[in-house]
Amino acid sequence: MCQAFLMAEKSLDIIRIPGSATHPELEIFTNRILNYRYHWHETQYEITTVLCGRAVYSRKGETAELTEDDVIIIDPLMGHASLALEKGTVTITLLMNAEGNELLSRNGTMISFRLWHSSEHDRSSHAFRLLRSVIADIMLSLLDDSPFASQTLDSHCSLLIPCLMRYFHPEEKPDIRKGSLSPQAAGAITAFLENHYSEKISLEDLASFTGYNRTYLSSFFKTNTGLNFHEYLTRIRLKHSLSDLAYTDKLMTATALDNGFSDLKTFASIFKANFHITPSAYRELIKNADKAENIDSRLFQNPRDELVINKLRGFSERGLAMP
Question: Is the domain covering 2-176+293-319 a CATH 2.60.120.10 domain?
């Protein structure tokens, strides 16, 4: 069944839904899961449902293995990655922007959802069936060309936050991001790290480059990213090390040193803490697997694919049923 998803002649990109009085700004897309793509969203929640296949998700040092119909919720700023455990694994992902939404982010706090993924024990529960239904109905409304499609879309989008707040155990956590730098200055700082992550770099080096003092820069990372300087730099190094493991034949020690880690032991320890697998085991796992063009690319699927549509319709029907 999964291989049929690969027959789509064309795919669409991310579909963006502007925010309104009833719902926040949303983005939605269907794509194939391949090798690890490590990233994070500054203000968006990511909600992903597995349509076909099996994948392991890593988020902030936690892992969850998901199969067909499973759902995972990832809070803003959580470093995360997904890895297909079966060829042809396809998902639908919805990104929900918390910025400016008083239910998700207010008074210096941000909502975190304690119920963050389903498993064989609860994937058929009313909570997860309803969430799958809301997301499916959003996509189906976007693909609808009837005269009232926009009104239908708005009504489905407006159900998303109530569903999450009612069933997924929300709790308020401090939102320590209070960035005061201009976007240009903040961009220059993060670009410097992207260009020098492989070097032995310190806050003093960054201070010399930017002209800001060390104390101010230390505060900058906490208030703009929620991470300290070392944590942010480590994320960049992990992202690039994943690329080397997937697309090169570098020795493990070279992979560690070329990506700014002090030695192989440190690299292996940090890698396993984040992905629950050693670097060498990860390389072996994906050696003969399908890979994305590069570590940052996605492989989008056409949401009009017959099997995708049928899956979404199934979610809609089951989600609207009584528990």
Answer: yes
- Three-state helix/strand/coil letters over the chain: CHHHHHHCCCCCCCEEECCCCCCCCEEEEEEECCCCCCECCCCEEEEEEEEECEEEEEECCEEEEEECCCEEEECCCCCEEEEECCCCCEEEEEEEECCCCCCCEECCEEEEECCCECCCCCCCCHHHHHHHHHHHHHHHHHCCCCCCHHHHHHHHHCCHHHHHHHHCCEEEEECCCCCCCCHHHHHHHHHHHHHHCCCCCCHHHHHHHHCCCHHHHHHHHHHHHCCCHHHHHHHHHHHHHHHHHHHCCCCHHHHHHHCCCCCHHHHHHHHHHHHCCCHHHHHHHHCCCCCCCCCCCCEECCCCCHHHHHHHHHHHHHHCCCC
Higher-pLDDT residue of 115, 42? 115
Mean pLDDT of the chain: 87
The pLDDT tens digits of the residues spanning 127-162 come to 999 999 999 999 999 999 888 888 899 999 999 999
Domain boundaries, the chain: 2-176+293-319, 183-286
Q: Which CATH architecture has domain 183-286?
A: Orthogonal Bundle (1.10)
- Give the residues across from 83 on adjacent strands: 56
The model's pTM: 0.83
pLDDT digits (tens, 9 = 90+) for 174-202: 775 655 555 676 778 888 888 899 999 88
Task: Say which residues have a Cβ less than 8 Å from residue 111's Cβ, sequence separation at least 6.
Answer: 98, 103, 104, 105, 165, 170, 171, 172, 173
**Of 3-12, 150-159, 280-289, where does mean pLDDT reach its minimum?**
3-12
Residue whose structure tokens are 């996509």: 139
